[in-house]
């Protein structure tokens, strides 16, 4: 499938893509806030700058775009027809970096939660429930330490 846009149109389209405050981030953050979860956004004191960092409980939440972070990569990478030599390695680097960031944060005691774009759009309540359960589990773990 060839690109339907001119190079200039494609360039403008790519420039418009945000790296923070994306629609999926805003959706998840708003729902968490409404559920009483307080957080830092795009927390630059941590590797990977988590989209949402619940610092009190050391929970880092990432909202991963299906395209840029390689959801269903085995089949999706076959669909990239235009400029494959650039896009395939770029997305694979993103995937490798996501893995490295997750491992580094976990080594530092952080719980890392990653939600795909489609999950936030179609299963927002399940995403919120997962975060709320993680907060509660971390809260209980902290209480247990205080009793020792």
Automatic annotation (TrEMBL):
Sorted UniProt keywords: DNA damage, DNA repair, Endonuclease, Hydrolase, Nuclease
NCBIfam families: vsr
Hydrolase as UniProt keyword: yes
The gene coding this protein: vsr
Name of the protein: Very short patch repair endonuclease
Function of the protein: May nick specific sequences that contain T:G mispairs resulting from m5C-deamination.
Family per record: Belongs to the vsr family.
Gene Ontology molecular-function annotations: endonuclease activity; hydrolase activity
Enzyme Commission number(s) of this protein: 3.1.-.-
Native organism: Caproicibacterium lactatifermentans
GO biological process: mismatch repair
UniProt domain DUF559: residue ranges: 93-135
Presence of keyword DNA repair: yes
């Amino acid at each position: 499938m060839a690109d339907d846009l001119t190079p200039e149109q494609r360039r403008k389209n790519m420039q418009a893509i945000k790296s923070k405050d994306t629609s999926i981030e805003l959706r998840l953050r708003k729902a968490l806030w409404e559920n009483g979860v307080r957080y830092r956004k795009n927390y630059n004191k941590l590797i990977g700058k988590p989209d949402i960092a619940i610092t009190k409980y050391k929970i880092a939440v990432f909202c991963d775009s299906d395209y840029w972070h390689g959801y269903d990569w085995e089949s999706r990478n076959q669909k990239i027809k235009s400029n494959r030599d650039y896009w395939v390695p770029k997305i694979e680097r993103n995937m490798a970096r996501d893995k490295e960031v997750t491992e580094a944060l976990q080594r530092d005691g952080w719980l890392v939660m990653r939600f795909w774009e489609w999950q936030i759009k179609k299963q927002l309540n399940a995403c919120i429930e997962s975060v709320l359960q993680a907060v509660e589990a971390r809260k209980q773990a902290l209480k247990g330490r205080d009793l020792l």
